[in-house]
Amino acid sequence: MPSIADIANDYAAMLAAGEALAAARKYWADDIVCLAPDEQASSQPVLATGKAAALARLALWLDGNAAVEVLIDGPFITGDQFALFIDMEITRRATGTREPFSEIATYTVRDGQIVEERFFYG
User: Fold this and answer.
1) How far apart are CA 82 and CA 10, in angstroms?
2) Is there a contact between 23 and 14 (Cβ–Cβ < 8 Å)?
3) How far apart are CA 65 and CA 68, in angstroms?
4) How many CB atoms neighbour CB 47 within 10 A?
5) Across-strand partners of 58?
6) Please, what are the domains in the chain?
7) DSSP assignments along the chain, one per residue
8) What is the C-alpha to C-alpha distance for residues 24 and 11, in angstroms, rounded to an integer?
9) Is the dihedral of CA 97, 45, 104, 9 positive or negative?
10) What b/e string do you get for 18-35 counting C-beta neighbours within 10 Å, with b at 16 or more?
11) Is 46 exposed, middle or buried (0-12, 13-18, 19+ CB in 10 A)?
């Protein structure tokens, strides 16, 4: 089984390469829980439980936004968790507006899979 450092480094590299969907398919557990801030201004659900719901939530975000540039700081690993600081330039597909977008993402790993993903942004 890969170490948490192996998982965190590979996951971060996949995100930086624009492979968010592939990273999710590879590392998310079937019972993953994904949480985003309540005040988010989008049509995404705040909570997604289970891999199918979480993949649908991610696909919705990817359908609405094009990441022009993705910079990742981390991973920062403690115990069974890791965190990434993610800075992006995104283009909102509906309007063509390009804007910066930053978030902190934390991940909990169990048995070689990510079981929780939590986002912090304003």
Assistant:
1) 12
2) yes
3) 9
4) 12
5) none
6) 4-120 (3.10.450.50)
7) ---HHHHHHHHHHHHHTT-HHHHHHHHEEEEEEEE--TT--SSS-SEEESHHHHHHHHHHHHHHEEEEEEEEEEEEEETTEEEEEEEEEEEETTT--EEEEEEEEEEEEETTEEEEEEEE--
8) 8
9) negative
10) eebeebbeebbbeebbbb
11) middle
Please write the tens of the pLDDT for every residue from 20-76.
Answer: 999 999 999 999 999 988 655 555 568 899 999 999 989 988 999 999 899 999 999
Q: Give the separation between CA 117 and CA 121, rounded to whole angstroms.
A: 13
CA distances from 52 to 19, 38, 41 (A): 17, 21, 22
Q: Which two tokens stand for residue 44?
A: 């995404």
The encoded tokens of residue 54 equal: 């979480």
Task: Quote the pTM value.
Answer: 0.91
Q: What is the pLDDT of residues 80-98, one digit of tens each?
A: 999 999 999 999 999 999 9
Amino acid in the structure at residue 82: F
